[in-house]
Amino acid sequence: MPDLGVTQLVIGFLLLLTPVVYFHELGHYWMARKAGVVVEVFSIGFGPEIYGWNSKKTGTRWRIAAIPLGGYVKMRGDEDPASTPSEAAKQAPGSFLGAALGWRIGIVLGGPVANFILGILLFAVVYMTAGKQILPAEIGEVMPQTAAAEAGLQTGDLVTEIDGFSIRDFNDMRGLVIESPGKELQFTVERDGREIDLLVTPMSRYNEALKMNIGLLGVRSIPGGERERMLPGSALVAASSDAFHMSLLILRGLARLGSGQMQSGEIQGPVGIAKISGSALQQGIVPFILLTAIISINLGLINLLPVPALDGGHLAFFIYEAIRGKPLPLAVQAVLMRGGITILMALMLFLIVFDVNRLFQ
Predict the structure, then answer these.
(1) 184 carries an active-site annotation
(2) What is the pLDDT of residues 15-27, one digit of tens each?
(3) Which phi and psi angles does 80 have, rounded to 5°?
(4) pTM for the structure as a whole
């Protein structure tokens, strides 16, 4: 594959991130309008405005900003794009803080839910048009002197679970093995009508392209892997199942990150995402759509983390309010929000520096 040019990287990044961010903020916007909350600004990107217009119907300022690393909706009573509340917010008619608790929860959840819906719809569109690859998690061949051979896996074994994680197809198995170099895994397989548990430790091998160690099992799939076009109902069911399993994998990754087990090659900042999106765009429209679906689900799930300035941080405040019967003091919320913004900005800067350093290496 030829090297990607800067133009292709930028185009791929913008084509990937813009619809994902737009749908996220549209989820917040739609719920806010339903709740009677006034949305003052709907921004794609941060920083100086490049282009914008005012809606005659709602008064919302729709804008495209210079830094394409996210977006926000600013509602009445918010002091900043992270929805830090002001002291006078509750008294202002149409303010976010003045809405009922249930509506505030709905507004905050609107963004992540919109991301999940977008991801599912994109998966479904691909499954209805290009088709979904059907490849059972059945062992077609076991290579000698490999982790699979040492563990006792045999041709014809159907892998159903790995470490309690349900395996639906060969790609599920491959993904869990790749992320577990040198880690003992418990495989549950069906063999001759019986369930058998085996302990398998994937071999570790450094992958130059990914800049990380990956796990190798040493098996081949059965012949096949054709793409099967689905009817709309079946496509939506399959897409929802894929979104759910992908969310579990993301949570596994976050758990490994929290325990310090994640490798540097698995961490991607804006530059890394631009490389991945440019590469997917180069491969064709179907890989690019699938990548957009994956990123959308990632964004929706990560935004639910209970970190101030993220949607999950707001939800944590509202859960506190529901339990205690009164909101967390506004001054405390403001401090936590500003701290969250500082942490997120520092993390973004770190990821950019990390990406650039890895790019030159």
Answers:
(1) no
(2) 899 999 999 999 9
(3) -155, 175
(4) 0.86
